[in-house]
Automatic annotation (TrEMBL):
Residues 176-265 form the Furin-like cysteine-rich domain. It comes from the Eukaryota. CDD domains: FU. Residues 50-160 form the Receptor L-domain domain. InterPro entries: Furin-like_Cys-rich_dom, Furin_repeat, Rcpt_L-dom. Residues 1-24 form the signal peptide. It comes from Allacma fusca. This is Receptor protein-tyrosine kinase.
Amino acid sequence: MVTILTVYLTVVFCLSAIIREVPAQSENDNGICSRMYIRNGPQELSRLENCRVIEGSLQIALANGSTDQWKNFSFPLREITGYLLLYDARGLQSLRHIFPNLTVIRGQEFIHNNYALLVNDMPDMQEIGLPSLTNILNGKVWIYNNQNLCYLETIDWGKITNGTQGNGIKKNKPSEQCPNTCPLKSCPKSDQGLSLCWSNEDCQKVQVKTCPEDCDGQNCEDCCSDQCLGGCTGPGPRDCFVCKHVEYNGLCMSNCPAGTYMYLKTHYQQFFLLFHKH
Ligand SMILES: *[C@@H]1O[C@H](CO)[C@@H](O)[C@H](O)[C@H]1NC(C)=O
Ligand SMILES: *[C@@H]1O[C@H](CO)[C@@H](O)[C@H](O)[C@H]1NC(C)=O
Ligand SMILES: *[C@@H]1O[C@H](CO)[C@@H](O)[C@H](O)[C@H]1NC(C)=O
Ligand SMILES: *[C@@H]1O[C@H](CO)[C@@H](O)[C@H](O)[C@H]1NC(C)=O
């Protein structure tokens, strides 16, 4: 039996249940939160507590606070299925303390044409500071009119988005006025041999290699399962930071296993709908 309203977001979890209605506000259920629009000031960030995944988009916009107030928050967020927008949030210098573990922006919805990461008119931002970000799966990057923003040339954006075509990075702090110095320890290098980093404290993480299929021998070091995104703690599909496709009982898989149901959720957050997969 299938009941689907309008579903935009791909499935990230498999469950074994049929249809479960839940209250409209079910944030923080299993670390999965609904889209969040942070306005006014840093105190609103507390709504992100315990969110590991945002199903939908995250906007931090039209807000003001002191740099210390913004720095007072740190969240386990690893994944945003929609886009990330930063617009006119004053006092915010870096996301480094707030989202140290944000690994994947799926870009299942965009803002302004086809942007999945948009940083616009952020007067105090000095560095973006997303040291764990390895993948923007759909969509492009727009970083515009941020007069103090540096560390943009030290990121290989083409490794995060699929190539750099369509990215717009303009009218930020002129790079000759930027320190753009990477940590002393050796960071990965761009094709031109430049060190890649998010700040003078964090290197850019580039995807590690995929492990061979039969990973029981010695040939499995410094590699991750092909089901992983953003790295892993071991060679298997249970060891991923973020699953490329779906997650079932902590295991990353290409599809939900037979007899289980995909977990879907609408944009409107009226229901969770579970879809019987044959
Ligand atoms: C923004 O917040 C800072 C720190 O709380 C405060 O000093 C400043 O007056 C605020 N600015 C505006 C325009 O509200
Ligand atoms: C940081 O958070 C703590 C606890 O929530 C609060 O007591 C403190 O005033 C906050 N500091 C700033 C600078 O906002
Ligand atoms: C980020 O991930 C690391 C490693 O898993 C963990 O130790 C740390 O507590 C996480 N940070 C936050 C803010 O959750
Ligand atoms: C990446 O972009 C190229 C063309 O620029 C396209 O052919 C390819 O399918 C894209 N890959 C993914 C994973 O989207």
